[in-house]
Amino acid sequence: MPKKIVLAYSGGLDTSVILKWLQNKYECQVVTFTADIGQGDELSPIEAKAKNLGVEEIFIEDLQEEFVKNYVFPMFRANTLYEGTYLLGTAIARPLIAKRQIEIAKIVGADAVAHGATGKGNDQVRFELGYYANNPKIEVIAPWRDWEFQSRKDLIEYAEKNQITVPKDKMGEPPFSTDANLLHTSSEGKLLEDPWVEPPEYVFSRTNNIENAPDEAETLIIGFKNGDPISINEKKLKPHEILSRLNSIAGKNAVGRIDLVENRFVGMKSRGIYETPGGTILLKARRAIESITLDKGEAHLKDEIMPKYAELIYNGFWFSSERIAIQNLIDSTQSKVNGEVKIKIFKGNVIILGRRSEKNSLYDNSLVSFDEVGDYNQKDAEGFIKINSLRLKKNNK
Fold first, then answer.
1. pLDDT the model gives residue 375
2. At residue 247, does pLDDT exceed 90?
3. Which residues contact 75 (CB under 8 A, 6 or more apart)?
4. Which of 233, 289, 295, 297 has the most beta carbons within 10 angstroms of its beta carbon?
5. For residue 366, how many other CB atoms are within 10 A of its CB?
6. How confident is the model over 349-364, as pLDDT tens digits?
């Protein structure tokens, strides 16, 4: 039996019920930890809610800068997409929360941690792999896999029985579930489960519909240093400020909506509606600056290993030795990824207008131009083609 538990606490109905359930079942002190990673929720009531449930040690921490600088940007250096589409907005947040939760457990002398992820989703895996990677001996409690509740109605009845305030808008079954942070908002479940049915407009919380986007395009210049964005329109900003600013611009212009059926790590297919406005701009801009600063071999190697890297993050292996090894390889290619990218944002589109790098560009106009000879002898191409045609000729004898 645990003597003290640190709970990842959002202040919502589910984690409030989990908090009380942990207190009743284990009869021990429960510490709450809330990470502010830009989810946009009003965090101020969380402390009061926790105090009302008898919590004495409450941690509410702003981790936005660490989230973007040490998790989002390193992931973006690989131009990471899971199954060719998903920018991993939920997956990349879990290792940071898990790591900090374990650190708090050590600070307060807790021997167990708990989370509110369900037994059907990926997040239970991501949280728990993160916990064990940072403390192999920690006890993990996953109430959704252990408790007696079968429905939302059961949770509400338990909440009312234990004097947990249930907002009126939470009395019925929610039409879908959401998760949000500075990188993205995801929506899934209930009315979104049928992959043929178009999601209603009210599902989207941070992006305009294309029909409602401005009729005038917006032009940006994004500056990069060592593979990471450092400025917008020549104004230097902190990592989380850059992402926040791009979210605002992209969201207004209907950029960043994705309707995806993905393969969960636990074995089922799931339909999700994702909004990743600023991240969508960054992905396009990064590939543009890399197109003139990375050698062909480096660029192609990155594209080859990216799906494996993405899968590791999606499956919860951020702290694995192989993810770290791939990260080191990726980062070794980024020292010359410096320069600027000019972009037009218009009605859901991210259009590259130009790219330049004063010191690190590999683009040689004298080589590519039809109007200059440069260091390229066109006659050399004949031998190159004949050598590459040898096996084709052999195969057709």
1. 74
2. yes
3. 88, 92, 313
4. 289
5. 11
6. 999 999 999 999 999 8
CATH classification of the domain holding 280: 3.90.1260.10
In terms of phi and psi (left: phi > 0; alpha: psi -120 to 50; beta: otherwise), the region of 383 is alpha
Side-chain-side CA neighbours of residue 115 (13 Å) = 25
Asked whether the beta carbons of 339 and 358 are under 8 A apart, the reply is yes
Domain limit, last residue, from 127, 155, 173: 173
Q: How many domains does the chain have?
A: 2
For the chain, the C-alpha Rg in angstroms (whole number) is 25
Specify whether 161 is located in the same domain as 186.
Answer: no
Domain boundaries, position 278: 179-294+333-356
Answer whether 293's CB lies under 8 Å from 341's CB: no
| β-strand partners of 187 | 178, 273
Helix (H, G, I), strand (E, B) or coil at 173: coil
Q: At which of 115, 139, 173 does a domain end?
A: 173
How do residues 144-193 score in pLDDT, each as one tens digit?
999 998 877 888 899 889 988 776 555 566 678 899 999 999 999 989 99
Angle at 126 between CA 123 and CA 127, to 5 degrees: 85
Active site residues: 14, 94, 123, 177
Whether 188 and 119 map to the same domain: the answer is: no
Is the distance from CB of 321 to CB of 209 less than 8 angstroms? no
